[in-house]
């Protein structure tokens, strides 16, 4: 077991001030690039929490050094996908003993495509407190600068690695009436753009946001087809967030509605036929009911 995980409860130095925070799991957001994006509240928590936990201990130590926050005898404990099962019981025990525990993601907001989800879920299941200290988020930063509708959006995270699962994932995403936000590796983004064109359509507007808040920040805004072509010969590096506009809702015309109703009415009673067709065509049930009555009246005349 790594050295910094030997003792979950730190032996505090004599000059370390008493903790200023009530027993709880504090989830702090950390900068995705610019170190000054850290919030004042997050800095206070880094100073005052008794137990510090991070997805990447080196990154958190470096962040604390930049902002002049001393460890004062505390260790920074690692918590990630590979050791979570072993660390969760120890952190829960510390919370039950009245300790304040801070968890920091590698970058951005904890629990968003992040191993902290299982930790927070375990703490909540034990009836213990979980408190968020909001701050930087690559997802929200990308949505802010994308120039695409933000009134309704869906965070999709990383697409599955397997081709079949990825295709199903994108086919389901294509039906969501909201702006879509994806995370993707620079090594796979070219393939991903081609697949998005095939399944979502080449004409959907999109914004590829790379290295947000960092020195080489870049935002490419254009339809998916143009983007795939424009970036095909470029080697991209860094963190990438892809924001894709919602698709236009396809409204069924009257002929389509009537044909669907005829088939449904041959197989079931009126009420059930209306419910089925309304769901299939994504139409208001009242509209489908009126169309069914008109269709029935026309057949009787």
Automatic annotation (TrEMBL):
Domain of life according to the entry: Bacteria
Catalytic reactions of this protein: cytidine(1402) in 16S rRNA + S-adenosyl-L-methionine = 2'-O-methylcytidine(1402) in 16S rRNA + S-adenosyl-L-homocysteine + H(+)
What residue stretches are annotated with the RsmI HTH domain? 252-295
* Stored Pfam families: RsmI_C (PF23016), TP_methylase (PF00590)
Keyword terms of this UniProt record:
Cytoplasm, Methyltransferase, rRNA processing, S-adenosyl-L-methionine, Transferase
Instruction: State its location(s).
Output: Cytoplasm
Q: Which InterPro entries match?
A: 4pyrrol_Mease (IPR000878), 4pyrrol_Methylase_sf (IPR035996), 4pyrrole_Mease_sub1 (IPR014777), 4pyrrole_Mease_sub2 (IPR014776), rRNA_ssu_MeTfrase_I (IPR008189), RsmI_HTH (IPR053910)
Please list the GO terms describing molecular function.
rRNA (cytosine-2'-O-)-methyltransferase activity
GO CC, sorted alphabetically, is: cytoplasm
Please give the name of this protein. Answer: Ribosomal RNA small subunit methyltransferase I
């Amino acid at each position: 077991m790594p050295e910094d995980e030997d003792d979950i409860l730190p032996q505090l130095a004599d000059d370390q001030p008493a903790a200023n925070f009530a027993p709880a799991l504090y989830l702090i957001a950390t900068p995705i690039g610019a170190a000054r994006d850290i919030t004042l509240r997050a800095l206070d928590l880094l100073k005052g929490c008794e137990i510090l936990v991070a997805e990447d201990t080196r990154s958190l130590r470096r962040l604390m050094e930049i902002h002049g926050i001393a460890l004062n005898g505390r260790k920074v404990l690692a918590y990630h996908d590979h050791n979570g099962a072993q660390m969760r019981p120890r952190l829960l025990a510390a919370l039950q003993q009245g300790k304040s525990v801070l968890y920091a993601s590698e970058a951005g907001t904890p629990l968003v495509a992040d191993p902290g989800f299982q930790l927070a879920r375990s703490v909540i299941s034990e009836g213990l407190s979980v408190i968020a200290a909001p701050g930087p988020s690559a997802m929200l930063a990308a949505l802010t600068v994308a120039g695409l509708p933000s009134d309704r959006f869906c965070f999709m995270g990383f697409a599955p690695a397997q081709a079949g699962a990825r295709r199903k994932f994108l086919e389901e995403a294509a039906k969501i009436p909201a702006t879509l936000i994806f995370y993707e590796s620079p090594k796979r983004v070219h393939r991903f753009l081609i697949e998005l064109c095939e399944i979502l359509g080449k004409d959907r507007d999109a914004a590829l946001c790379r290295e947000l808040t960092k020195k080489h920040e870049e935002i490419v805004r254009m339809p998916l087809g143009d983007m795939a072509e424009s970036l095909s010969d470029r080697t991209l590096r860094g963190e990438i967030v892809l924001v894709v506009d919602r698709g236009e809702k396809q409204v069924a015309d009257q002929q389509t509605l009537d044909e669907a109703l005829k088939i449904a009415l041959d197989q079931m009673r009126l009420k059930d036929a209306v419910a089925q067709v309304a769901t299939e065509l994504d139409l208001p049930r009242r509209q489908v009911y009126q169309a069914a009555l008109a269709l029935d009246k026309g057949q009787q005349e």
